[in-house]
Amino acid sequence: MQYIWLNGVDEGKNNFIRIPPNNNPVTDVTSTDMTCNVNGLSGSTVQTLTIPAGANITFEWHQHDQRTGEDPISAGHKGPVQVYIARAPSTASSFNGQGTVWTKIYSSGLLNPSTMQWATDVVNANGGKHSVRIPSSLPAGQYLLRAEILALHVAQTYPGAQFYIGCAQVSISGGGSANPPKVALPGAYHGSDPGITVNIYNNLQSYIPPGPDVWTG
Known about the structure:
Blueprint: E1 3-6, E2 9-10, E3 17-18, H1 33-36, E4 49-52, E5 56-60, E6 81-87, E7 100-108, E8 110-112, E9 117-118, H2 119-125, E10 129-133, E11 141-151, E12 162-173, E13 183-184
Parallel strand pairs: 4-12
Antiparallel strand pairs: 1-2, 1-5, 3-12, 5-10, 6-7, 6-11, 7-13, 8-9, 11-12
């Protein structure tokens, strides 16, 4: 994840994002790398973007350090796309995202079993982008926004599923008083989950992404 957009405005490359050291996937669902990728437990050198409650946030992904010339996601890397949010107890930059703090606000998986169209295919068609509305009922404060792409092309056995994770730091202004359901990451995912260990090439007719249901606010 290399860019975020606020209400249609590109906020610049690598800004407000905890950048991992490389584009390698996370495969151990029990690792703290599941939170915000490798070296993602601190954002002390990362700025925090102020956004209004109810904002539209777009995440933009690229497999290499370029925006053009190749698919944003390798075409064979098919799977779901999900987004979580967690409120920081103080500042987003000092928040490690541990504990039962994450709320799922977006999920898209297998869209068309007959054509094997996945959420990742839509992201590729959109130039690496997918968007989510930040629920307007969330309280004002600082948050981590965690976007996740799960590639299932070698997920027949565990560990095989490939998690690509990006976390952005935001400060929500306005908002409400909602107290949404929360899970821990790591914690909510298990290697035996049918959304994690799965053969997507064996006439798959339905798919349930890992983790809780989406909370819409």
